[in-house]
Automatic annotation (TrEMBL):
It comes from the Bacteria. This is RagB/SusD family nutrient uptake outer membrane protein. Residues 335-446 form the RagB/SusD domain. The keyword Oxidoreductase does not apply.
Length: 486
């Protein structure tokens, strides 16, 4: 059923008419079988994008450098998803880690959410499906948020009413080659907020077998905090961040990299812990089909020694040293974050698909979002406390983040600006290999400069460069969707 429903999406429109026709011939009978809350819940397991944005977002950011002029694709893999993103080129690939695939997987997830909502409506008795309705609405909002973030201009209240958005799809497909309108970023944000605010109160954590794989109330609040940070509604960021954990206590749920229980772990054990469902820092986890877990240490455009000594081994506002664990050598520097789960498609060969568990929302992000929002709201003491709580989970000797240290280190125009810069710098280091630095680059229109290892070529992605928006798949034009300008 999962694979059939996936064709009830833009994927079908973007691939072949025959697939659409085949689905439309079968769909009514299949939809009729989704007729109990348990069956709708089973369907919603696939209402989350199974693609990954990490590979292309990481390579496009300033968290990736060229490892060496002598490196070849055989020595250091430089697939288009890694190389083209680093060169700020459109990625002409449908690799599982490509923007095209992420677009498709988001709309596949949206289609599942829409099918769930349609089945609930058709079954009558909506009160029996309250929890499923909540999950479907929030999941639909999340997938659209990721799409508009990566494939449209970042939200700016002064331009959102005219910036092209992405199709906000709210109904299952019933025709072949339906035409879609991108409308505007403002419209997409309005629809996201509508789904999010309607769905969040309906969620019931007790309806899930493994809560960390679903939008629990905590995960929905974490998503809301991220959404409102992009929207610059800072009071709501703090409001939702405070509701992620009981009593607003984020510090108790942070990953602790300085205790012996972590520092004595072997590499593989640290990998497993980072994405474990019982790790309190992980708020929402998603299994994705991706080659990232296998390739991220060896990609050519990634962490270099130079970058390492600007981030994990570099100076910071506390004056103390970070205690991040870094593995590998010059061409394979990495941190133990992801492990691959390889599934053979043929038991008699080594051919198969690679998967990895990805933290979609974490306690660390919630803390950073709250600290940044409090800085803008003038709540400096609260922001400094959050940042101090964070560094005490990353620096063995312990340290503090104070107004005096920020003023001395950054010499900012204001304490608020200094706190924000501290947050951005901490996140740049914390999220190496996770692609999340790209989101801050978008929000703050930060320039990105890439230099080839031979120092002969400098590539600059300026604040107004249209290439900051990833290109919409070429096949989407079949659905009447205009591609992004270049």
């Amino acid at each position: 059923m999962k694979h059939t429903i996936k064709y009830l999406t833009l994927i079908a429109i973007l691939t072949s008419a025959s697939s659409c026709k085949k689905y439309l011939e079968q769909a009514p009978d299949l939809r009729a079988t989704i007729n109990t809350p348990a069956k709708v819940s089973e369907l919603l397991v696939t209402a989350y994008p199974r693609g990954s944005y990490i590979t292309f977002c990481e390579a496009a950011s300033d968290n990736a450098e060229d490892k060496g002029i002598a490196a070849t694709d055989e020595d250091l893999p430089a697939k288009p998803v890694n190389r083209d993103a680093w060169y700020f080129r459109d990625i002409k690939s449908n690799d599982t880690d490509s923007p095209d695939n992420y677009w498709n997987e988001c709309y596949a997830a949206i289609a599942v959410a829409n099918q769930a909502l349609a089945s609930i409506k058709a079954n009558g008795n909506p009160q029996a499906y309250t929890a499923q309705t909540g999950e479907a609405l929030v999941a639909r909002a999340y997938a659209h948020f990721m799409l508009v973030t990566l494939f449209s201009h970042v939200y700016d209240v002064s331009t959102a009413e005219t910036d092209p958005g992405v199709p906000y799809v709210t109904e299952p497909e019933v025709v072949v080659f339906k035409k879609y309108s991108r409308k505007t970023v403002a419209y997409v944000y309005q629809q996201i907020e509508k789904d999010l605010t309607e769905g969040l109160p309906l969620i019931n954590d007790n309806s899930y077998k493994i809560p960390k794989y679903h939008f629990t109330t905590s995960a929905a609040h974490a998503f809301a905090a991220r959404f409102y940070l992009f929207k610059k509604d800072y009071a709501k960021v703090v409001e939702h961040a405070n509701l992620v954990f009981p009593g607003g206590n984020i510090a108790a749920n942070l990953r602790n990299f300085v205790i012996p229980a972590f520092t004595t772990l072997e590499y593989g054990a640290r990998q497993a812990l980072y994405t474990a469902a019982d790790n309190p820092a992980n708020i929402l986890l998603q299994e994705t089909e991706t080659g990232w877990a296998r390739s991220y240490p060896s990609y050519r455009y990634a962490l270099t020694n130079n970058l390492l000594y600007k981030t994990m081994f570099g100076p910071n506002v506390t004056g103390a040293n970070w205690d991040y664990k870094v593995s590998g050598r010059e061409f394979t520097l990495n941190t133990s974050k992801f492990s691959e789960h390889f599934v053979k498609t043929n038991p008699n060969s080594d051919v198969g698909d690679s998967y990895a568990m990805i933290p979609i929302f974490s306690a660390e992000e919630v803390l950073f979002n709250r600290a940044e929002a409090n800085a803008y709201l003038g709540n400096s003491d609260a922001a400094l406390k959050d940042l101090t709580d964070f560094v005490n989970k990353r620096i063995i000797a312990g340290s503090t983040v104070t107004a005096a240290k920020i003023t001395s280190y950054y010499k900012p125009v204001s304490l608020s600006a200094g706190i924000v810069q501290t947050v951005l710098d901490f996140k740049k280091t914390e999220y190496l290999f996770e692609g999340l630095r790209w989101f801050d680059i978008l929000r703050y229109n930060l320039p990105v400069v890439h230099k080839t290892a031979d120092l002969l070529t400098t590539l600059t992605l300026g604040p107004n460069d249209p290439r900051r928006v990833f290109q919409i798949p070429e096949q989407a034009t079949l659905a009447g969707i205009e591609r992004n300008p270049r």
